[in-house]
């Protein structure tokens, strides 16, 4: 019975496939960036130039920030990471503020409805 040999080339191929399929999950940019950097370090030969690495990194970003990072045409990987992080933080903050504002509006609306219902009850009682 023959046993399969460990082949580092197959491992590298798998890592290269991982980096091409890598995308941000939800808004977890930190995990994406960390995994991207690990894979890019292990598969350095697939990014002969810094701009190639940046292009691949930006390609895995969510649509909500992808265009802005792409348009910035950054030349250094660290700058791309920092800019993407800044944009993602801003988007998350804006979303949270919007949610809080909507929740407050909803609370105000339900309070107004309760007041209106109580006024209607009082009017109906006085009529009777």
Detailed description of the structure:
The chain starts with 7 loop residues before the first helix and ends with a helix. With 128 residues, it is an all-alpha fold. The protein has five helices and no strands. It has helices spanning 8-21, 29-42, 50-59, 63-72, 77-127. Helix 1 (8-21) runs antiparallel to helix 2 (29-42) and helix 3 packs parallel to helix 5. The chain is elongated, with a radius of gyration of 26 Å. It has one domain. Residues 1-5 have low confidence and may be disordered. Helix content is 77%, strand content 0%.
- The level of helicity is over 70%
CA-CA gap between termini: 96 Å
Range of strand content: under 5%
Residue-averaged pLDDT: 84
Model regions low in confidence, pLDDT < 50 over at least 5 residues: 1-5
Shape: elongated
Can you write the helix and strand succession as a string? HHHHH
Protein name: Reverse transcriptase domain-containing protein
Biased composition (Low complexity): 111-128
Pfam families: Retrotrans_gag
GO molecular function: RNA-directed DNA polymerase activity
Key terms:
single chain; 128 residues; mainly alpha; 5 helices; 77% helix; elongated; transferase; Reverse transcriptase domain-containing protein; RNA-directed DNA polymerase activity; nucleotidyltransferase
Report a brief summary of the structure.
The chain has 128 residues and is mostly helical. The protein is 77% helix and 0% strand. The chain has helices spanning 8-21, 29-42, 50-59, 63-72, 77-127.
Blueprint (SSEs and pairs):
Elements: H1 8-21, H2 29-42, H3 50-59, H4 63-72, H5 77-127
């Amino acid at each position: 019975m023959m046993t399969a040999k460990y082949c580092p080339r197959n491992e590298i191929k798998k890592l290269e496939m991982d980096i091409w399929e890598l995308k941000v999950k939800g808004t977890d940019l930190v995990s994406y960036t960390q995994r991207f950097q690990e894979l890019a370090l292990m598969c350095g030969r697939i990014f002969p130039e810094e701009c190639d690495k940046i292009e691949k990194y930006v390609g895995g970003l969510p649509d909500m920030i992808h265009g802005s990072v792409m348009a910035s045409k950054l030349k250094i990987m660290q700058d791309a990471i920092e800019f993407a992080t800044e944009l993602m933080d801003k988007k998350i903050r804006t979303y949270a503020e919007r949610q809080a504002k909507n929740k407050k509006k909803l609370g105000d609306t339900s309070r107004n409805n309760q007041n209106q219902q109580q006024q209607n009850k009082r009017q109906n009682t006085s009529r009777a």
